[in-house]
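Escalation from tier 1.

The customer reports that the assembly of two entities below gives different structure tokens on two consecutive runs. Tier 1 could not reproduce it. I'm attaching the input and our single run for tier 2 to review.
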Amino acid sequence: MTIEVPTPNTPATQSAVQGATERATVLTVQRTHLPQKLPEADAAPEVQRASRRTRREDVFRLAGAAAAGVAVTAWLFTQIAPFQGGLPFLVLSYGFFLVFYAVLVGLEDGVVGVVDRLATVVFNSVAVVLLIALIDIIVFTIARGSKALVHLNFWTQDLTLAGPLDPLKVGGMLHAAVGTLIMIAIALIISIPLGLLCAVFLAEFPGPFSRVVRTVVEAMTALPSIVCGLFIFATWILLLGMPKSGFAAALAITIMILPIIIRSADVVLRLVPGNLKEASLGLGASHWRTVMHVMLPTSRSGLMTAIILGTARGIGETSPVLLTAGYSSSFNFDPFTGPMTSLPLATFTLVKAPSDTQISRGFGAAAVLMVLVFVLFLLARLIGGKGAGELSEAGMRRARADSARMASRFTRRRLVPAGYGDSGFPPDGFRPDLGGTP
Amino acid sequence: MTTTTITPTSGDHVVPRRTVIVRGWQDHLFRALARTGGTLVLVLMGLVGLFLIIRGSSAIKVAGWKFLTTQAWDPNSHNFGIAAVLVGTITIAAIAIVIAVPLALGTATYISEYAPDGIRRLLIGTVDLMAAIPSVVYGLWGAFWLDAAIEPVSQWISTYFGWIPIFAAPDFDPSDPLATTTVFTTSAVIAGIVVAMMVSPIAASIMREVFAQAPIGEREGALALGSTRWGMIRTVVYPYGAGGIIGGIMLGLGRALGETIGVYLVISQIFTINIHILTTGSNSISSLIALRYGEATPFEMSALMAAGLVLFVITMAINFGASIIVSRSRSGAASEG
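Tier 1 run:
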């Protein structure tokens, strides 16, 4: 069911007002109207006006200060102090660059201007540093893993036949990828229904009890991931005597991601505009229908984001799996018996081996894991990233189609003479509890 | 659904009328279901906490106050404590925060205030992506790349700033040309940088979201009064986003304290307090658990639980502090669409 919120002064509202006195008129006027596309000026959010422009002097100052900084550092390194290494060179020349830049700006500007210019430069460079670090991490992992990644067998085999001394032409990581998928699937089967149910409970039934639940869940988001593993290890494996298995690892992952999913889903559900809920309840829909047909669809993208981010965290985390899954180098499709391995666990185990080929395999597994997480993440960005109630093009089309269908349904009913049909409802009776289907 | 009272505007006896709404069976079922879900989660989460407390306290009872002051970890001869691992954990987290705060604050400021539109969208995606990289990848980067790359820098710092106690390297003599530089590998600083790389995107994305909400009217007002861009940031954006800055830092700190694999791969674990952060050897509670869980006797297990409990309590306190500060900041606007 889609609730259209008509803006005041639309024909529909006016006709509804008139309808109180002139029932006959209302019956012929279409009450549900299709929303017109708003003019651009109204639709766009408020944007700060740009007040920046670059002068020629700004560029000259930057270039001059940079050249002077590098030159002075080079002179210092070669002539004065026996410094060595690329990083100290970079740091020192950056320091000199800042000093020269401050002096150059100070030639025609006061203290306020100098501080402003310096702040601009520093913020620019901090962002660049973070970006470089990220690129370094990704490129390094993929480059070290590429020796293993280029072989086709890396994607299609397990490690049963591949010892530490075997070349990279033997053995692969498919068993770890399969293990990862099985573990995360079990964890999601448990945590999605339970997490969403709990989030709905927190958002929809406020009271002392739900406050307690929310507090405990928030506390549990602080639970270090290794402690999740330790808990399952101490209870499921040591206390109950179960073997290390994929299922035990899935339980540990569940305990880790459940609070994360609940917390972000709770936030998203609380962001559903109150007037949408009130409109639904005001039209006579039951609480259950309001949740199912208004709250959940409205916050669908946010909920998907919560689940996908929880999944990315669950896939990437090593420590709960380390304690509970055991380690296996061959395929194991049965989560309940025998050890199972996952990509982060395989990475962790392989890079500790004193063998170049094993380390290459470990890096390969890390690269595969990273790609998997990136794909999930991009999915989350595509689906999410929109506020509650904001619809995509397709969503908007669906909503319009729903409204049109409902409008035609009302018109159809009105055209039939009074006392029509088997339902026995008045011709213009609106029954929200029947849902959006005609 | 709820019982509402309506006050009539006219009439002799102004008595609120009670309107009672009868719930259908679906609603009853829904209430029961939601309540069950909430209870189940509460029981599950409570069980984890309770189990930690019960199992952990049996070890703490044996060790007493010495649990906090002993450096060695030998539970089977009842000589154990978390002094070394706790100090190691805090050292690594502190290094991480010292590095991550300027990085995160600078990146968040750049993204929300300085970046041109196209670059802004790219950077937002990049920072969020960084937050999603698995910790084992950061660990690999730290152990195989940073460990070697940091060596000359550590050597340089310890040579010229060695008079500051934490930067000293007692086993390294800079005047000896044959001195080995391996004392600078697997140090707390490397672990701290790895963890900083891990937490700064998390902190940065929280800060960025708060900065972006700073009211445009106030920003343009500051600029119109003649403020520079930096002046506007300092007087409008930062005060408005103070809650987000502190909250982001504390959430990052909570993550930094609990990080296992990134730290485990980088450091070599020792059970003494090492204040020389540039030299080999450090420890953390989570690495201790990852190292010792395998061959643990039941009593050692309970000692590990106690260590985990201490870590949990610290991160929980920090998280709660963060959420209180964030919720008190001005940026928590109500949502009425």
